C-alpha cells in the first residue's frame, strides 16, 4: 500500500483537543474509583466538627470580650490589638468557606447512589446531623437518632463496608 492509498485520519481542530483535554480528568476519575457516600460523609463530618469547634470558640471569645471590655464590638477591640477579638475576626473569615464546603458536600452525598449498607447509613447520619436536635420535634429526633443508632448496631460489621 502506498502513502497515497492509505486512509487519512480525520483533521482534528483545536476544539477537538480542548474537548478531549477537558474530558480526560472525568474519565480518569471514573476509572480510578467511584465516590462513595460513606467516604464523603467522613470528610463532611470532619468539616462539621470544625464548624462546631469554631462556633464554640467564637462564643467563648465573645463572652470573654464582654467581660473584659463591657462591649461586643470585636472589630473595635481588634483595631486596638485585642488578641481574642483578632481571633474572632479570623474565625469570621474562615466559617463561610467551611459552611459552603459542607453544604456542597451534603448536596453531593445526597445525589450519590448507595452501593453498600455503609453508604446508606452515611446518608442517614448526614441527614440526621443536618436536621439536628434544635431543629426537630424531640420525639421525631429520638426516632431518627435512636433508630439510626439501633440499625447501625444491628448491622454490626455490615455497617462498615
Overview of this structure, please?
There is one protein chain. The protein has 161 residues and is mainly α. It has 2 domains: 76 residues; 46 residues, no CATH class. Helices cover 75% and strands 0% of the residues. The protein contains 6 helices and no strands. α2 runs antiparallel to α4 and α5 packs antiparallel against α6. The longest helix is centred in the first third of the chain and has 33 residues. The protein starts with 13 loop residues before the first helix and ends in a 6-residue tail after the last helix. The relative contact order is 0.10. About 17% of the residues have low confidence.
By secondary-structure content and strand pairing, the structural class works out as: mainly alpha
User: How many helices?
Assistant: 6
Give the termini distance in whole angstroms. 57 Å
* Overall domain count: 2
Work out the strand percent: under 5%
Biggest sheet features: none
Uncertain residue segments: 6-32
Sequence of secondary-structure elements: HHHHHH
Count of beta strands: 0
Assign an overall shape: elongated
- Using the CA coordinates, give the radius of gyration: 26 Å
The chain-level mean pLDDT equals 82
What portion of residues is helical? Answer: over 70%
How does the SSE layout of this entry go?
Layout lengths: L13 H19 L4 H33 L4 H6 L3 H29 L5 H15 L6 H18 L6
